[in-house]
Design goal:
This protein has helices spanning 2-5, 9-35, 44-68, 70-77, 90-96, 100-111, 120-123, 130-136, 151-156, 171-176, 181-192, 200-204, 211-217, 250-253, 261-274, 291-297, 318-321, 329-342, 350-353, 359-365, and strands at residues 243-244, 301-302, 311-312, 369-370. The protein is mostly helical and 372 residues long. The protein has 6 domains: 2-34; 48-73; 78-139, DNA polymerase, domain 1 (Orthogonal Bundle), CATH 1.10.150; 151-220, DNA polymerase, domain 1 (Orthogonal Bundle); 243-307, Photosystem II 12 kDa extrinsic protein (DNA polymerase, domain 1), CATH 1.10.150.320; 311-370.
């Protein structure tokens, strides 16, 4: 036993050295934190990367919502109504909701001889998006010419002048006379640049005005106050025919002064769109109709309001309501939404009493509505 628990001098020194080393290691572990500071990590770059990632996500989200609600913005901006894109005045394009740039492109296209032959042609105009075209397309009503071929065919035909003031006549009326499109553009451009016709002979100086064309136009030129039709040629004293607007066909309408085949077709076409005329003043809404032409025919037309077709507002859908020229999408939606709220209309006057439509619009649409 003594041999196992007894250490010689060498072993005793080894144990002493080992004990000292163990003590030193323990002391180092205890005292080392007091002499060495912990190095704090730098998160700056990491935070920058996080901020960059969040910014990209926000941008992507905004882009998504802009794309998602783009069609809603267009719907609010556009206010479609039945229209013919050929020769449509700038004011009407603005009323539809198109921008000045879009209108400028369309007018430039027309000045260069461009024409819309079918609805899809409007979609090809630079600046008009697919979403805009989808909203406008149901309202496009293109009036075809008699030959329905091209403007060039119309230009080669005999001109059909009627009394006009070259200082105020619109582009479409000049085209209705079957004048050359380049000549019409020259006249319009001359006026837009401040030019004015003080006497008949001034029109003769327009570039492109051929002598034979001027000779045919000259008797019909009425400048400033001289805008009434000269009746000196009416020596036969034949009574003017009285035409009922809601039953007349295109041949009947052509008996009226200033109404040719093209205008007769437009009057009949607009009558179908309305469902019939309830007032002769509605003729002023016909595409291309001017006050001179209307004043010369208003005393020779009558209207039978009983033949007007009426729409039942208790059963009509939005799609059926917007087919009428006076009712846009928002008005139709308001009528249907209010009907869903109250159940059924007891009378057409409820639209006015409940402020579903403004008074002015109500007076226009009331003759075309009914309750069953």
């Amino acid at each position: 036993m003594k041999g196992y628990f007894t250490f010689n001098r060498t072993e005793q020194r080894g144990i002493a050295v080992l004990s000292v080393l163990i003590l030193i290691v323990i002391l180092i572990n205890i005292l080392l934190p007091y002499f060495i500071e912990d190095e704090k990590p730098n998160y700056t770059e990491f935070k920058k990367e996080i901020a960059k990632f969040e910014a990209s996500q926000l941008k992507a989200k905004q882009k998504y919502f802009q794309k998602e609600f783009k069609s809603d913005d267009i719907t609010k901006r556009l206010h479609p109504f039945p229209f013919d894109p050929n020769g449509l005045p700038v004011e009407k394009w603005k009323k539809l909701g198109l921008s000045d740039k879009q209108i400028k492109v369309i007018k430039n296209y027309e000045r260069k001889g461009g024409r819309f032959y079918k609805n899809e042609d409007l979609a090809k105009i630079y600046g008009i998006s697919k979403e805009e075209y989808k909203i406008l397309e149901p309202y496009i009503t293109i009036v075809n010419d008699d030959n329905n071929k091209s403007v060039k065919v119309m230009e080669k035909t005999e001109i059909s002048p009627f009394p006009f003031d070259p200082n105020v006549v619109d582009e479409n009326s000049l085209l209705t006379m079957k004048l050359d499109t380049k000549l019409v553009s020259t006249i319009i451009n001359y006026r837009e640049k401040g030019g004015r016709f003080y006497k008949k002979e001034d029109l003769k100086r327009i570039y492109g005005m051929k002598p034979e064309i001027y000779r045919k136009l000259e008797p019909f030129i009425k400048i400033e106050s001289d805008t009434t039709i000269d009746n000196t040629d009416n020596t036969d004293n034949k009574p003017e025919p009285i035409v009922e607007l809601n039953s007349a066909d295109t041949l009947d309408l052509q008996q009226l002064k200033g109404i040719g085949p093209s205008y007769a077709k437009r009057i009949v076409k607009y009558r179908k769109m309305l469902g019939g005329y309830y007032s002769k003043t509605q003729l002023m809404e016909v595409y291309g109709m001017d006050s001179v032409r209307y004043n010369n025919m208003k005393n020779f037309v009558t209207v039978n309001p009983d033949s007007v077709k009426r729409t039942d507002i208790n059963s009509a859908t939005i799609k059926q309501l917007i087919k009428h020229p006076y009712i846009d999408f928002y008005t139709a939606k308001s009528i249907v939404k209010y009907r869903q709220k109250i159940g059924k209309f007891s009378g057409v006057s409820q639209l006015k009493d409940s402020a579903v439509v403004p008074d002015e619009l109500y007076r226009k649409i009331a003759p075309y509505l009914t309750v069953k």
